Amino acid sequence: MIPGMKKAQQMLEKFQAELASLEVEAKAGGDLVKVVATGDQKIKSITLDPSLKDEDLQTLADLVMVAVNNALEEVKEAGMKKMQKMGLPGLF
């Protein structure tokens, strides 16, 4: 095994575990649509304000899309910050 490889592998495993436990919340349309995503880029929940029931489907779809994209971008940024903090080279 290459010297230092085991330590790098342990750091990577720690990073992956910390990232998986990370949660971010993103919003769209003010607070009308809220999306919670995890650090392993899975959508955990989507919450719609009841006032949206009268909106057309395209508007609703657009708001959900924006909130999901914002959540995934926040997850990516949080992951990059965590990697830098741990001294790991960029993986994203």
Automatic annotation (TrEMBL):
Keywords: Cytoplasm, DNA-binding. This is Nucleoid-associated protein Thena_0247. One of its GO terms (cellular component) is cytosol. Belongs to the YbaB/EbfC family. One of its GO terms (molecular function) is DNA binding. Binds to DNA and alters its conformation. May be involved in regulation of gene expression, nucleoid organization and DNA protection. It is found in: Cytoplasm, Nucleoid. HAMAP family: DNA_YbaB_EbfC. The keyword DNA-binding applies. The lineage of its organism: Bacteria, Pseudomonadati, Thermodesulfobiota, Thermodesulfobiia, Thermodesulfobiales. Homodimer. InterPro entries: YbaB-like_sf, YbaB/EbfC. The keyword DNA-binding applies.
